[in-house]
Design brief:
Elements (H helix, E strand, L loop, with lengths): L1 H20 L4 E11 L2 E6 L2 E7 L2 E4 L5 H18 L3 E5 L10 E9 L5 E3 L2 E5 H7 L4 E2 L9 H13 L16 E2 L1
Parallel strand pairs: 3-6
Antiparallel strand pairs: 1-2, 1-5, 2-3, 4-9, 4-10, 5-6, 6-8, 7-8
Helix pairs in contact: 3-4
């Protein structure tokens, strides 16, 4: 029993240490292209990289009318908000299946933002897509840093009938892009 408690304390400590390592934001990077609603091409100088927004699935454009409509809305929302703007990245414990693509939470500086990283305030784009009903949470592992916030954001969009939640029966799982 004693060893079990020690093991649990060590696991908790290592997880809290790992979480604290990711509190700093990397950036700024310029969004040079919006590939789809959750995939961005970022540039820093003459270097470019792709980043996917972590923890969400967005509608992809498809043959079904609802897929095309909400996929276009999500793409337009991301493009309008981010194209040619500076963003900052926060990484989590995950790595992409494709090593050329980074997975991150993406932030845009905004004086009204509710995410505070001294000395600035930001909006988190992953959360903004959820709040506007243009994404749903996607949890790849049992430990997800912003799971509670993402579920709350989705619930707010559902309650207000926004985006994909305006016609919840019109969207099927084939429409969502992980």
């Amino acid at each position: 029993m004693r060893y079990l408690i020690i093991a649990l304390v060590l696991i908790f400590f290592s997880l809290s240490q790992a979480q604290s390592e990711f509190q700093a934001l990397a950036g700024p990077f310029v969004v040079s292209r919006v590939i789809d609603a959750k995939t961005l091409e970022l540039s820093a100088g003459d270097q470019t990289s792709e980043v996917k927004l972590l923890g969400i699935a967005t509608p992809k454009k498809g043959d079904e009318a609802a897929c095309a409509l909400y996929g276009s809305q999500a793409l337009d929302f991301t493009s309008d908000l981010l194209l040619e703007k500076e963003v900052w990245l926060e990484f989590d414990l995950f790595e992409a299946d494709d090593p050329s693509i980074m997975l991150a939470y993406v932030y845009l500086a905004n004086d009204q933002g509710n995410w505070h990283y001294d000395p600035q305030q930001f909006v988190q784009i992953n959360e903004q897509l959820l709040l506007n009903g243009l994404a749903e949470p996607m949890f790849d592992t049992p430990i997800m840093r912003y799971e509670d916030q993402f579920l709350l954001a989705m619930q707010k969009a559902k309650n207000n009938g926004l985006g994909i939640w305006a016609e919840p029966d019109a969207i099927n799982l084939n429409c969502m892009q992980p």
